[in-house]
Amino acid sequence: MKVVGLTGGIASGKTMVSRIFESLGVPVFRADDVAKQLLSDSHIKPQVISLLGNVYKPDGTPDYKLIASIIFSDDDKRKRLEAIIHPVVWQKFQEWLKEQKHPYVIHEAALLFESGLYKHVDWIVAVYATPTTREKRNPAYKQRAHLQLPENFKTTQAHFVIYNDENCPVIPQVVKLHRLFINQFHKPVSLQK
């Protein structure tokens, strides 16, 4: 089974792109969602509290706004939290991958390059939107963009770029890539031994 890494900066539209792939029948693993869910994991929770203090609401659920305010203002704590979470996300991905039957899967991750995950995928797709477009979509873009590698790095390191702004329809770009991946990754099964 082949793995396509899908990444993009804040408000680039990578989740929308992953949903289009999903609508075409491609299994999608959303690393960022899994990372969020892990903050509630009974094994990880004590490590998070030890690192960030009690960042949980009275009902025990993570206070995402509080966590974001801490990690986006303290690079050291952010990196240490990522060191706790990323290996477990990778383990969850490996378990998920064993259950998939499609010729290829999408591994969607904002920090594909930053986490080193890019070394473990077959192809990389970067979703690009102009800074102006991204700021319109997410006012926090300017405050958080510096926490990710620059867009020009991602687009030059990726095998493919999907342009997601008002000038380029996204669906035809995704469909074209899907056809390419199916042709490249699908191998007929021989019925002879």
Any overview of this molecule?
This protein has helices at residues 14-23, 31-38, 45-52, 64-71, 75-98, 131-137, 141-144, 151-157, 170-185; strands at 2-8, 28-30, 104-108, 123-128, 160-163. By secondary structure, it is an alpha/beta fold. The protein has 2 domains: 1-27 and 100-193, 3-Layer(aba) Sandwich (Rossmann fold); 33-92, no CATH class. Strands 2-3-1-4-5 form a 5-stranded parallel sheet, sandwiched between helices.
Q: Could you outline the blueprint of secondary structure elements for this entry?
A:
Layout: E1 2-8, H1 14-23, E2 28-30, H2 31-38, H3 45-52, H4 64-71, H5 75-98, E3 104-108, E4 123-128, H6 131-137, H7 141-144, H8 151-157, E5 160-163, H9 170-185
Quick structural summary:
The chain has 193 residues and is of the alpha/beta class. It has two domains: 1-27 and 100-193, P-loop containing nucleotide triphosphate hydrolases (Rossmann fold, 3-Layer(aba) Sandwich), CATH 3.40.50.300; 33-92, no CATH class. It is 48% helix and 13% strand.
Keywords:
disordered C terminus; single chain; 2 domains; five-stranded parallel sheet; Rossmann fold
Strands ordered across the widest β-sheet:
2-3-1-4-5
SS element count, helices:
9
Question: Given the helix and strand composition, which structural class is it?
Answer: alpha/beta
The stretches of 5 or more residues where confidence is low (pLDDT under 50) are: 188-193
Number of domains: 2
Strand content: 5-15%
Shape: globular
Instruction: Kindly report the oligomeric state of this protein.
Output: single chain
Q: Largest beta sheet, briefly?
A: 5 strands, parallel
CATH fold field value of the largest domain: Rossmann fold
> Would you report the number of β strands?
5
- Mean pLDDT over the residues: 87
SSE order, as H and E?
EHEHHHHEEHHHEH
Q: Report the C-alpha radius of gyration, rounded.
A: 18 Å
Instruction: Note the gap between the termini.
Output: 21 Å
Helical content stands at 40-55%
CATH homologous superfamily grouping of the largest domain: P-loop containing nucleotide triphosphate hydrolases
